[in-house]
Design brief:
The complex is a heterodimer. In chain A, about 50% of the residues lie in helices and about 15% in strands. Chain A is an alpha+beta fold. Chain A folds into 5 domains: about 70 residues, no CATH class; about 180 residues, no CATH class; about 220 residues, no CATH class; about 160 residues, no CATH class; about 210 residues, no CATH class. In chain A, a hairpin with a 2-residue loop joins strand 7 and strand 8. A 3-stranded antiparallel β-sheet of chain B has the order 1-3-2. Helices cover about 60% and strands about 15% of the residues of chain B. Chain B starts with 6 loop residues before the first helix and ends with a helix. By secondary structure, chain B is an alpha+beta fold. In chain B, helix 1 crosses helix 4. Chain B contains 4 helices and 3 strands; from the N terminus they run αβααββα. Chain B has a single domain, classed as Winged helix-like DNA-binding domain superfamily/Winged helix DNA-binding domain (Arc Repressor Mutant, subunit A, Orthogonal Bundle). Classes of the chains: A alpha+beta, B alpha+beta. Chains A and B meet through helix 1, helix 2 and helix 4 of A and helix 2, helix 3 and strand 3 of B.
Chain lengths: ~900, ~100
């Protein structure tokens, strides 16, 4: 009953407001009248009695206010009134309102953008049924490597599928790039190999047609494909006619049978899939000797949905029990016995798969945390500026506040109203910020993507991001609202009438100086961070890479997809090379198995004929196979010996060119030219000796960040097995867009079926530095923003200070002070807050910059240069702002100032 | 002045005899307490609003002895129950306090 009557009474008061108010008025009037009558009976005159009754009751408005406050509807109503009043107040100061909202939109937007990236990459659960029940099986990687990157073989997957009894469904998947074009320029699509039970176990339902099932995943199966929703939309306009149509994958026709639900982008966060095909269709691509039976082809991830009631501990122990049988049935036969034994001893381990997999997490978790801290600080600095503005406004509104208190508003009521104003501002700013964040995130993704990696993240707004933004808005609003609300409402009518000034050393002024000093300190921290990341990026970008990346096109071809027989590979490559060299604008053209900075590697241990300490524990060196034009095309200087030439053939002495690092580590103290080394072949047997014929300077092999790695270059003419997907490096003298078409035609002239992919070596380089570039750009942007905000803060506070001390300055000038000495008075304040701010800032930087050390390249986390430059920058900006404000102090007209008093 | 937390009980007790309007309640409390307790409108009316919402009292508009309209408050069944339990609790506590004050 009480709840019912509370609710109905409150609702009545809300919706029949006028009636309820009238009733209240009438009741109070009756009370006053009765009270007055009573007093008259006691002998007072009518006028006296009325007056006494009124005095006894006090302000009728505040009684009413208290009555309203007794029911819950009072809160709602008061809030609504506050909001409406705030809107009116803010609309009257459009410049102030829009400035504050813009600052907040930037600050909260930046925070939302970074948080939403973190959310998408690290926190969001996969959009499948009960993702918390999914676990991945790992622990099966080749010895010495941790599980995630390598996956399992198909024989292992089949063993797990057939033997497991802990999952209600188990499934496997792998990823692949498919070429949609039939020859010529490659049109890549992100492919997904999936086992038959993939979609059912994930609990996904088709958006159109049907999804793959276990019946579709059998040896000798039909070539069926399921499209992702996004691909269906972009390539088919979401037309139903897509179902049943044919799609060409690497030149093989597949039948489209259905479309996956929208919002499902695959199992890897940071990527998306376009087309899913059953595992068994690898036979279509690979032929009968497909990877399905290869016991050393690690291409699959395996996961399952845990049966109800099986805890992690039981799952773990059960998988351990199943492991020996699973591994024993899938031992790679060509491994040496010791490795086979190790393989049999492996144990399957479950890892939660709730948030999916991601290769981006390792690289970006740390930078995202740093960025989150950076944008948090920026918001804090912006908050301080707005608080300062609000305090000035509160001071200017002293009269309004005094009037409202005199009319019976309680202090709490006024504070609530001021805070409502601030919250309204911060929420409006946050709403704008959400839009900004969406735009910023999309922009960020394009900067993180490169030629090899298209980063895709799902930025659909979810409760977590909205909650974060609302939380940020609330905290921000309270932060900049609390102090003016406290300060602005402690007015008394008499003080305001007397126009009492806040003395220069008063607590409010001191608070403002403190706020500005902390702004200076925080901006310094951000500037140092920006300085470190910028210099780190510069170091990376200007590091000696050992070749000249400008004006080099990289052309990848794929002879396997073109169905060229392996015996014809070399001849075909030679014909393409010859065609390319005839093109006008081609300075030189080379061919290699791997391209520099291509994000792939081939390594083997070697044994040199010179005694040397073991390198990196296992004498591992990195290989590439190249032709005799390679060094000349990339302009990698030869330091000793000779380059490859036409005399190096399959029948001549096996030769190699090595880099400086390898020469130093494996041939210490001798001229390596003429010496030999032997690579470890299969089953740890040594291959025949290879003679060193030349030494080149060091060059980057796989990534811009790596230290020089020992590298062996071998002639392509001596490869044991020609590769179907070699690359050409072409140094060009004409612009890339002109050359691209010519190169495409030259390859087509040899064979139209050959798929090709063209990009520049500089693009490949940029991709290798994407993380550093984005970090440097963002930290520089936010560092600059922080500097700007702090400068505005210094200027604003000093202007306020000068205005406060107008009369004092006037008196001083009347007594003969020069404008110079007045300026010095102001600048003394600047100096104090600068010294305080900078010293604190340096302390904070030294304490926190260690967090950056993992992200820095070629620069220490405690860099005196970065600190000195940042300190100088902020000192210069603050002094300039101080001078600007101080000049106004010198322009005070003594007479005018004195008359004002 | 009123002992903290007892205003609701005093209002309920006052209404136990007969329905009264706001001023009548204030008047009655002051008279019966022989001027020890005087209740001002600022605490009385919010208490009415609260008790009404809790369903302890209900209000009706009725003509007064002077033939004006006034809002009369009357006890509900739940208010009566509430009064009983509060009165019991109060006499228990005041007896205890009295014992302590006499003992020392």
């Amino acid at each position: 009953m009480p709840i019912g009557s509370k609710l109905s009474g409150g609702l009545r008061a809300l919706f029949h407001r006028r009636e309820a108010e009238q009733e209240m008025d009438e009741e109070l009037r009756e009370f006053l009248q009765s009270s007055a009558e009573r007093k008259m009976q006691a002998g007072m005159s009518a006028a006296e009695a009325r007056r006494a009754a009124r005095v006894e009751m006090g302000s009728v408005e505040s009684v009413k206010e208290e009555i309203r406050a007794a029911g819950w509807e009072g809160v709602v109503e008061a809030l609504w009134t506050d909001v409406r009043y705030s809107v009116r107040v803010l609309a009257k100061a459009p410049l102030f309102t829009s400035m504050v909202m813009l600052t907040l939109a930037l600050g909260i937007g930046a925070n939302t953008a970074i948080f939403s990236l973190m959310n998408s990459l690290l926190l969001k659960a996969l959009p499948v049924e009960k993702p918390e029940e999914l676990v991945e099986i790992s622990g099966s990687a080749p010895i010495g490597n941790s599980g995630d990157d390598y996956g399992l073989t198909n024989p292992l997957w089949e063993q797990i599928r057939d033997r497991q009894d802990v999952f209600s469904g188990a499934f496997a998947w792998g990823s692949e790039q498919f070429d949609l074009a039939r020859g010529g320029m490659t049109q890549n699509a992100d492919g997904l190999w999936v086992s038959g039970d993939f979609f059912r176990t994930l609990g996904l339902h088709p958006a159109a047609g049907r999804l793959l099932s276990t019946a579709d995943d059998r040896r000798g199966c039909a070539a069926l494909a399921v499209l992702s929703y996004g691909f269906w939309e972009s390539h088919y306009g979401a037309a139903g006619s897509a179902i049943g149509s044919a799609i060409s994958l690497d030149g093989h026709p597949f039948e489209v049978i259905g479309v996956a639900p929208s919002g499902f982008y695959g199992m890897t966060v940071g990527r998306k899939f376009d087309i899913a095909v059953p595992l068994c269709t690898t036979e279509v691509f690979d032929g009968p000797k497909s990877r399905l039976d290869k016991r050393h082809f690690w291409w699959l991830h395996v996961a399952g949905r845990v049966k109800e009631g099986i805890g992690m501990a039981r799952l773990k122990s059960r998988l351990a029990v199943l492991s020996p049988a699973v591994y024993a049935s899938a031992v790679p036969g060509d491994w040496i016995p010791a490795m086979q034994d190790n393989f049999r001893k492996r144990v399957m381990a479950p890892d939660p798969l709730t948030t999916g997999l991601s290769d981006l997490r390792k690289d970006y978790e740390e930078p995202l945390r740093v960025l989150m801290a950076v944008v948090g600080l920026v918001l804090l600095i912006a908050c301080a500026n707005i608080a300062s503005l609000m305090m000035a406004r509160a001071a200017a509104r002293g009269k309004e506040m005094a009037m409202r208190r005199a009319l019976g508003a309680s202090r709490l009521r006024l504070m609530r109203q001021l805070i409502a104003e601030c919250l309204l501002l911060s929420f409006a700013g946050a709403a704008l910020g959400l839009l900004l964040a969406r735009w910023g995130d999309t922009l960020l993704l394009t900067y993180l993507s490169g030629v090899h990696r298209q980063v895709f993240l799902d930025f659909t707004l979810d409760a977590r991001v909205l909650l974060f933004t609302a939380g940020a808005a609330t905290i921000t609003g309270l932060l900049f609202g609390i102090s003016p609300a406290l300060g602005g409402t402690t007015v008394s009518l008499s003080d305001t009438v007397k126009k009492n000034h806040d003395a220069a050393g008063g607590p409010r002024t001191r608070l403002r100086l403190w706020i500005v000093a902390s702004q200076v300190a925080l901006s310094l921290v951000l500037l140092v961070t920006a300085g470190l990341l910028l210099r780190s990026f510069r170091n990376l970008a200007t590091t000696d890479i050992g070749f000249d990346p400008e004006h080099v096109l990289l052309v990848n071809v794929n002879l396997f997809t073109a169905r060229t027989p392996p015996s014809q590979y070399t001849a075909t490559y030679d014909r393409i090379g010859a065609q390319l060299r005839t093109l006008p604008g081609v300075v030189s053209a080379a061919r290699s198995m791997l391209t520099p900075l291509g994000d792939s590697q081939w390594n083997t241990s070697i044994h040199s004929d010179v005694p040397h300490p073991i390198v990196n524990g296992d004498n591992l060196v990195y290989f590439n196979f190249i032709d005799r034009y390679y060094f000349a095309t990339l302009r990698t200087p030869l330091l000793a010996g000779r380059d490859f030439d036409s005399s190096d053939s399959a029948r001549s002495q096996p030769v190699a060119v090595i880099n400086q690092t390898l020469a130093r580590e494996f041939f210490p103290g001798v001229n390596p030219v003429g010496h030999t080394f032997r690579p470890e072949g299969g089953a740890r047997k040594l291959d025949p000796p290879i003679q060193v014929i030349g030494v080149t300077s060091d060059a980057k092999y796989e990534s811009m960040r790596e230290e020089p790695v020992p590298t062996v270059f071998r002639p392509l003419t001596q490869t044991p097995l020609p590769d179907p997907a070699d690359s050409f490096e072409i140094r060009i003298a004409l612009p890339q867009r002109v050359m691209g078409k010519a190169v495409e035609n030259a390859v087509a002239a040899v064979n139209r079926e050959i798929p090709i992919e063209i990009h520049t070596l500089t693009a490949q380089m940029d991709e290798s530095m994407a993380r550093e570039r984005v970090l440097a750009a963002l930290s520089a942007f936010f560092g600059g923003l922080a500097l700007l905000l702090a400068t505005i803060g210094v200027y604003g506070t000093l202007s306020y200070l000068v205005a406060q001390r107008r009369i004092e300055f006037g008196v001083r000038m009347a007594l003969g002070a020069t404008s110079r000495s007045i300026l010095m008075l102001v600048m003394r304040n600047v100096a104090i807050l600068l010294i305080g701010g900078i010293v604190t800032g340096i302390g904070l930087s030294l304490a926190t910059s260690q967090l950056l050390s993992a992200l820095l390249f070629g620069i220490g986390a405690r860099d005196a240069g970065a600190i000195a430059i940042s300190g100088a920058l902020i000192a210069a900006a603050s002094l300039a702002a101080g001078l600007l404000a101080g000049r106004r102090a010198t322009r005070v007209d003594p007479m005018a100032a004195l008359r004002q008093e | 002045m009123i002992v903290q937390g007892t205003l609701d009980m005093l209002i309920l007790k006052t209404l136990a005899l007969e329905p009264l309007h706001g001023y009548g309640i204030a008047q009655r409390i002051e008279q019966v307490s022989q001027g020890v307790f005087s209740v001002n409108a600022g605490s009385l009316f919010p208490a009415f609003r609260r008790l009404e919402r809790e369903g302890r009292i209900k209000a009706v508009w009725k003509p007064t002895e002077n033939n004006r309209r006034a809002k009369y408050y009357a006890l509900t069944a739940s208010g009566r129950k509430q009064l009983q339990s509060e009165a019991e609790e109060w006499s228990r506590q005041s007896a205890a306090i009295a014992r302590i004050m006499e003992a020392c």
